[in-house]
Amino acid sequence: MLWGRAQVDDQGGEAEQEIVAAADGRTEEPLAISMSGPPTLQKRDAASPDVLRRRFARVRREAAGCQRCELWARATQTVFGEGPVPAALMLVGEQPGDREDLEGHPFVGPAGRILAEALELAGIDREATFVTNVVKHFRWRPSPNGKRRLHERPTRANVTACLPWVQQELELVRPDVLVAMGATAADGLLGKGVSVMRDRGRPIDSQLAPTVLVTIHPSAVLRARDDRDAMLDGLVADLRVAANALPSAG
After folding, report:
1. Domain 5-27+46-249 indexed as CATH 3.40.470.10
2. Staple partner for 137: which of 31, 75, 100, 121, CB 3.0–4.6 Å?
């Protein structure tokens, strides 16, 4: 089963969504066009899980047509977050890779396999985890022979363009524990004052979730050479901190 693919109802039509919005006592508002800094959460309403899932399906459909930055033109598709809505644990990475761009699902490539291994070792059910990225389109350059698409780090403008989508995900997933994986995610979510290597594995003061943590991106394990086992062990240790902060661990 693909990560959380069947856990969000994306079949409701526009009329059905209007009924849900009316029953929920709210009017659907268009998304903000841009953000100038890290996301800030609005006051949470008392929406039921079913209503949150329907709102999420609507936002995901809107994101499928996103053209807020130039990345959409060379990407196959928007890769939105997946997993249960709401979810106790939310993991945020940098951007989709080549496999994610082709398949349309986050963390299904090599870095996703490392993440799956680390989650298992940390005792975390990946099917109960919401996973996403701060950038929703793949930024890449062609290899010298033109046969491969090579990852390029997204720009600050790319991250800023995508932050309204990430804010919507946060407001609908409502995680108890939020983990930013890698410098791009940490910077986008928490600002320049956070350093992954300095602050990893310990709670960070933030209003985005009751517990907020940072750790390395799983791709860092792939890039490691002599210390690959140590890098994986460090990622697992940080994820165990997240696991121990989950309500079910109490």
Report:
1. yes
2. 75
